[in-house]
Amino acid sequence: MRRASIIMLFLVTLRLSAACGGDPEPLAALHSEQPASLTTEEYGEQLFRNMGCHACHSIAPAVLLAPSMAGIAGSTRTLIGGRTMLADDEYLTRAMLQPGAEIVEGFRDDMPSYADTLTDTQTRALLAYLKTL
Ligand code: HEC
């Protein structure tokens, strides 16, 4: 519980500093449906920032609090216990909706579930974006 509140505080601080800092690209409004002006991948990228994924996950090879998303789609992931899994569409979708189902080796079960947050369209857009990384 304590650990969870520390993470939340971290996320809130990050959000605030992004809003107050000299970030040239302010957070776009959170659209619940894909705006016509964006491709599915661009919408996914916007969600990745607006839903806070980027607070824990880097899209560069750097590992933050969580595994990097660089090159994740189609790669082989090693889970706690040594089992390996192919990061296909099914795996990546489950990682967002039921993060506790598979825990990546070297990490803890710290990711919040997005099952109640993401619409199907948003889940598909995030998946499309992850596949571009
Ligand atoms: C509070 C930090 C946190 C946030 C926010 C978060 N994640 Fe995670 N995520 C983790 C951690 C820690 C793991 C590794 C443990 C596990 O496998 O569940 C993980 C695992 C994953 C994995 C599997 C990674 C792998 O190496 O196989 C994917 C995919 C993923 N997250 C996507 C997302 C997406 C998309 C979002 C936003 C909708 C998000 N995460 C938000 C912490 C976070």
Which labels suit this protein?
133 residues; mainly alpha; Cytochrome Bc1 Complex, Chain D, domain 2; two-stranded antiparallel sheet; 2 strands; 41% helix; globular; binds heme C
Summary of the model, kept short:
By secondary structure, the chain is mostly helical. Helix content is 41%, strand content 5%. It has helices spanning 2-20, 40-50, 53-56, 89-97, 120-130; strands at residues 76-78, 84-86.
Low-confidence stretches: 5-25
Shape: globular
Order of helices and strands: HHHEEHH
- What's the CATH first level? Mainly Alpha
- Class inferred from helices and paired strands: mainly alpha
> Looking across the biggest beta sheet, what order are the strands in?
1-2
CATH architecture: Orthogonal Bundle
The value of Rg in angstroms is 15 Å
